[in-house]
Amino acid sequence: MADIMSVEFLEKRYGNVQAVDKISFGIPEGICFGLLGPNGAGKTTTIEMMEGITDPTSGQILFRGRPIEPSFKKKVGIQFQHTSLPEFITVKETLQLFSAFYPNPRPMAELIRLCSLDDILNRDNQKLSGGQKQRMLLALAIIPMPEIVFLDEPTTGLDPQARRNFWDLVRGIKAQGTTVVLTTHYMDEAQVLCDLIGIMDHGHLLELDTPDHLLSKHFQGALVRLPGREIQAENLDDTMKQLLAEGADLTGLSIHKPDLEDLFIKLTGSTLRS
User: Fold this and answer.
1) Span 205-262, pLDDT tens digits
2) What residues does each domain of the chain span?
3) Nearest 5°: CA angle at 186, between 185 and 192?
4) What element of type H or E holds 22?
5) pTM recorded for the entire structure
C-alpha cells in the first residue's frame, strides 16, 4: 500500500530546544495512524508541521510522494483540540455556512449521516454537549471531502459512551477511504482505532508498527503484579510455581495481559498523561 503522506528527516528547533529531531516515517493510504507521546514529546509539533501550520527547520514533508504545495490545503481536514463555534446559530446553519466556503462540499445529507447529526440539527451551537460538539467539529473537518484528516485528541473530556460513539464515526470515515491521523491520550482508543502507531519521546520516534506487532515485540506471556513488584512471565505456570516455592506473599496478586499502556510506560518511563 502506497504512502499518502511521509516525513523525511523532519526537524524542528526553537532556539536551543530540539522539539523534533530528524524523524522519518510514512503513512499508508486508507489507514488510521496514531502518533502518541507524553507531553513535550514533539508529537503536536510534528502534526502541526504535517498540517502545514508550522514550518520545519529542516527535512521535508511529502504528500503522495511530492512536497506539499498550497493545493494541499484543499485535500486535508483538521479537527483541532480546541475550536470555538459561531454562537446563536444552529448546527444546520453552521454546516451550511462552512459548506459555502468550498467549491465542491460534501453533500449535506452525507455529512449528517456520517457524523450522526440528525438529532441536533436545530440546536444552537452553544447548547451542544461535549460529545455533540465533537461530532459537529468532525463534520466540519470532512466538509471538503479531504483525502487525509487530522484529529487532535478528539475525545478528551468525553464520557465513555460518547467516546465509543465517536470511535464509530471515525471507523465510518475510514471505511470511505479517508486516511485518519490521530493523536490521543487514551491507550484503549489507540488500540481500537489505529492500524499503525508511532511513539515519540524527547523529539525522537521510538517505535513505529502495528499495535499487535509492538506488543509481541516487547512482551511475552503475561505481567504478574504484586504490591511493589512486577514480573514479565513468559511461562505463567513456571512463574507461579517459583513464587510459591519462594514463599512469596500472593496477597494482591493480579495477572495482566500487556497492552499499549504497558508498552508506553516501558518505552517512555511515564504514563501518557504525564
Assistant:
1) 999 999 989 988 888 877 888 887 888 787 888 888 888 888 888 888 888 788 888 8
2) 3-214, 220-257
3) 135
4) strand 17-28
5) 0.85
61: which strand partners? 7
Between residues 30 and 156, the one the model is more confident about: 30
Residues 6 or more apart whose CB falls under 8 angstroms from that of 153 comprise 81, 183, 184, 185
Mean pLDDT score, 14-20 = 94
Rounded to 5°, angle at Cα 180 from 177 and 183: 170
Confidence of residue 270 (pLDDT cuts 50, 70, 90): low
3-state helix, strand, coil in the chain (%, to 5): 35, 30, 35
DSSP secondary structure string, 97-158? HHHTTSSSPPPHHHHHHHTT-GGGTTSBGGG--HHHHHHHHHHHHHTT--SEEEEESTTTT-
Measure the CA–CA gap between 201 and 269, rounded to whole angstroms.
10
d(CA 257, CA 208): 21
Is residue 199 helix, strand or coil? strand
Fold of 3-214: Rossmann fold (3.40.50)
Give the Cβ contact number of residue 43 at 10 Å: 24
d(CA 126, CA 194): 32
Task: Give the model's pLDDT for residue 9.
Answer: 97
Band of residue 273 on the pLDDT scale cut at 50, 70, 90: very low
Reading the block at residue 218, the C-alpha cell is: 516487547
pLDDT score recorded for residue 33: 98
SS3 of 36-71: the string is ECCCCCCHHHHHHHHHCCCCCCEEEEEECCEECCHH
Identity of the residue numbered 116: S
